[in-house]
């Protein structure tokens, strides 16, 4: 399954009491669809999944699926460091009607490659949903090896990879040695064009909340053979991409959305909002663009 080129790792909107705000969520969905998002990933890292309760995740899945109404793919973050719990949440997400699931590498446990393979294989055997692997060693400590990813890609419903390793050599090897239908996405906004250039399919993006149309134009120009124009856009967008990660995500992107008039509330502890200085700097960078 091809999910699209620009997949937005959607923030989770909260109200003044830091509770899930479904009305703001509806508004955010429409804004993202109109501004370049080909698909939505919900309850992922940017969606503050670590601080969402099980009930909140289910409520979020149900609401997003209903509002999107099959206009674009909805991919639910259902992975954790507990294989059994990941299976249970994945099954619930499937019943709700999501189009796919994002399964992160188990964190804290520090499994070896055999454990990682068995974790993903076991989850895949319990669902018919397409699965996107999420390799993010900076957060989970462990990293899926190239060989493990290639082996997992042979499982019928493991169809995609979000790679946040920053290792372009490894990504090149994965693209070269997996089936052409296995899609590979950058998990780092600043590597969107480089990964596209070596054969990737697109990006799971935070920055697309703010510069989705520009990122989509960049990828379209590249596909049309306008490489220099695409590279020019990449260089212009890079300061915004960097600014949106000046503090632990998603605090900067939530501040940027609120500044744009797309109300999404604050982050939950242990994350904290931007300082006044950080917010001022972010606004300056956005204004320059």
TrEMBL record:
Enzyme Commission code: 4.3.3.7
Family matches, as Pfam families: DHDPS
Keyword set includes Lyase: yes
Top-level taxon: Bacteria
Keyword Transmembrane helix attached: no
Subcellular location: Cytoplasm
Membership in a protein family: Belongs to the DapA family.
Residue sites binding pyruvate per the record: 46, 204
GO terms assigned for molecular function: 4-hydroxy-tetrahydrodipicolinate synthase activity
Chief subcellular location: cytoplasm
Protein name as it appears in the record: 4-hydroxy-tetrahydrodipicolinate synthase
Subunit structure: Homotetramer; dimer of dimers.
